[in-house]
């Protein structure tokens, strides 16, 4: 049965490959509309929206996986930075403290006319070391050659798998891969429970 990842995230695709699951990538074009302000519910809603949007246009039997990740601090969702000053304020807020990363996942299995849908949310607590202004400025200045700054496309303004994570993540409680955007082992076991893995 074909597996479709309803996400354009290269990290999610990489994690699916690490699980040994070959998948086609088809990012959802659905407008992101949420009815909740609670991080857990927001990511579940958005993962479901993306998953079902792609499942709707997929022909034949398939497994479609949608995911959405947010960073939250004291219950408030921190999205992707809108610019360097927004990124700076996030770093100042998070340094020396614990925040949460939530990833919602929805899996839709379509076989003939039947459709089974499972949604869940995974949470990881992440603690940063305290950072000096110089360290924050140094991180914000990091840029890939010819590409956008490393902080610009990441929820909360950082990637745990980057130089930043190596230097400033003091510890985590929960799934490391969840912070990268997909609770990989949970996805694997959910797929196993759905009977779609060989």
Describe the secondary-structure layout.
Elements: E1 2-5, H1 10-18, E2 24-25, H2 39-57, E3 62-73, E4 76-78, H3 84-94, E5 98-111, E6 114-128, H4 133-141, H5 163-168, E7 169-173, H6 176-180, H7 184-193
Parallel strand pairs: 1-2, 1-3
Antiparallel strand pairs: 3-4, 3-5, 5-6, 6-7
Helix pairs in contact: 3-4
Notes on the protein architecture:
This protein has 198 residues and is an alpha/beta fold. It has a single domain, classed as Maf protein (Alpha-Beta Complex). Helices cover 35% and strands 28% of the residues. The protein has 7 helices and 7 strands, in the order βαβαββαββααβαα. Strands 1, 2, 3, 4, 5, 6 and 7 form a 7-stranded mixed beta sheet that branches. A hairpin with a 2-residue loop joins strand 3 and strand 4. It is elongated and about 60 Å long.
Query: Count of helices?
Result: 7
Tell me the overall shape. elongated
Q: Please indicate the percent range of residues in DSSP E strands (runs of 2 or more).
A: 25-35%
Helix content: 25-40%
End-to-end C-alpha gap: 9 Å
Broad CATH class? Alpha Beta
Structural class: alpha/beta
* Total strand segments: 7
EC number: 3.6.1.9
Pfam family, one: Maf
Function: Nucleoside triphosphate pyrophosphatase that hydrolyzes dTTP and UTP. May have a dual role in cell division arrest and in preventing the incorporation of modified nucleotides into cellular nucleic acids.
Family: Belongs to the Maf family. YhdE subfamily.
């Amino acid at each position: 049965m074909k597996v479709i990842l309803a996400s354009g995230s290269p990290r999610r695709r990489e994690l699916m490959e690490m699980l040994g699951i070959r998948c086609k990538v088809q990012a959802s074009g659905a407008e992101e509309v949420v009815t909740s302000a609670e991080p857990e519910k927001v990511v579940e809603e958005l993962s479901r929206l993306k998953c079902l949007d792609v499942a709707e246009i997929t022909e034949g039997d398939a497994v479609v996986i949608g995911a959405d990740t947010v960073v939250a601090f004291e219950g408030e969702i921190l999205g992707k930075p809108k610019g360097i000053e927004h990124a700076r304020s996030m770093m100042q807020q998070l340094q020396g403290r614990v925040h949460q990363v939530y990833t919602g996942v929805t899996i839709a299995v379509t076989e003939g006319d039947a459709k089974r849908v499972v949604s869940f949310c995974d949470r990881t607590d992440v603690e940063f070391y305290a950072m000096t202004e110089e360290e924050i400025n140094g991180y914000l200045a990091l840029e890939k050659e010819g590409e956008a700054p490393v902080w610009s496309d990441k929820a909360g303004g950082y990637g745990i798998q980057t130089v930043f994570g190596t230097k400033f993540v003091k510890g985590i409680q929960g799934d490391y891969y969840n912070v990268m955007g997909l609770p990989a082992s949970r996805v694997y076991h959910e797929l196993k429970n759905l009977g779609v893995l060989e």
